[in-house]
Amino acid sequence: MTDQSEHLDHLKAELLEIALDAAARAGAFLRDGRPDDLGVAATKSSAVDVVTEMDIASEKLITGLLADRRPDDGVLGEEGADVEGTSGVQWVIDPIDGTVNYLYGLPSWAVSIAARKDGETLVGVVHAPMRGETYSAVLGQGAFVNDLPARVRPAPAFGLALVGTGFGYLAERRARQAEVVRQLVPEVRDIRRGGSAAIDLCDVAAGRLDAYYERGLNPWDYAAGDLIAREAGALTGGRPGEPLSTDLTIAAPPGLFEALQTRLEDLGAWHD
Ligand code: LIP
Question: Which domain holds residue 35?
Answer without folding.
Answer: 3-149
